[in-house]
Specification:
The chain contains 8 helices and 3 strands. By secondary structure, it is mainly α. The chain has one domain. The protein has a 3-stranded antiparallel β-sheet.
Length: 217
């Protein structure tokens, strides 16, 4: 409605609709996933001599670890999978609703590839942001606020990388590089921390059945 009042070109309205939709889908659904994992945080039990290196759980004062997928309660695991499935469906509907905005929404196969790329790339960016907030010591309230408001940004950025105007692709790529660098610098402010190594460790622990504890200094 706002786009029509401003008399934006049809292609611009389509792009705005696609990016807004991707952002909303990611924020609402992945924000709920974040709430589930934050609610399931547990107390870490590292080696006693290293106890002080682990960030305390908000409100607990004890070293904090965040559970892997397989450490969630069975119902919680089902809920996470259901939310991911719903995200896939929502992006599929969005790809059809905004067909023509992207290089990859011209036919059914291209739209499926678009959904897989936006979902996969968005989840990679979302989990990177989660590691940054954990390692930088953000408390649960701030993490949830960011998840529900900015959690869809990685999905929107990946969608922007696939839009037709190459200039938008370049801008989106620059924003992605800037955000990755910003996350690296935020964590690098804590001595001996490398966000990429932490991200790799968290990725390994996520499906291994062990908790991921984030050290701080």
């Amino acid at each position: 409605m706002i786009a029509r009042r401003l008399h934006w070109p049809a292609d611009t309205r389509l792009m705005v609709r696609q990016l807004t939709g991707a952002w909303l889908c990611g924020s609402v659904l992945m924000g709920t996933v974040a709430w589930g994992f934050l609610s399931a945080q547990v107390t870490a039990v590292p080696v006693a001599t290293q106890l002080s290196r682990y960030a305390p759980c908000p409100g607990h004062g004890a070293p904090c670890a965040y559970p892997s997928f397989f450490q969630l309660m069975p119902l919680a695991r089902v809920a996470v999978l259901a939310l991911l499935a719903l995200l896939f469906v929502a992006l599929t509907v969005l790809s059809r609703w905004t067909a023509g905005a992207s290089w990859l929404t011209g036919d059914a196969r291209a739209r499926l590839l678009w959904v897989l790329l936006v979902m996969g790339g968005g989840l990679a960016g979302w989990s990177y942001a989660a590691v940054v907030t954990y390692a930088a010591g953000f408390d649960s309230t701030i993490q949830l606020i960011l998840a529900y408001t900015a959690g869809g940004l990685p999905f929107a950025l990946v969608a922007a990388l696939l839009l037709r105007p190459w200039r938008v692709n370049v801008v989106a790529g620059g924003v992605c590089a800037g955000l990755v660098a910003a996350g690296f610098l935020m964590v690098a402010g804590h001595p001996a921390q490398n966000v990429f190594l932490l991200y790799a460790d968290y990725a390994r622990s996520f499906f291994s059945g062990s908790s991921a504890a984030f050290p701080y200094y």
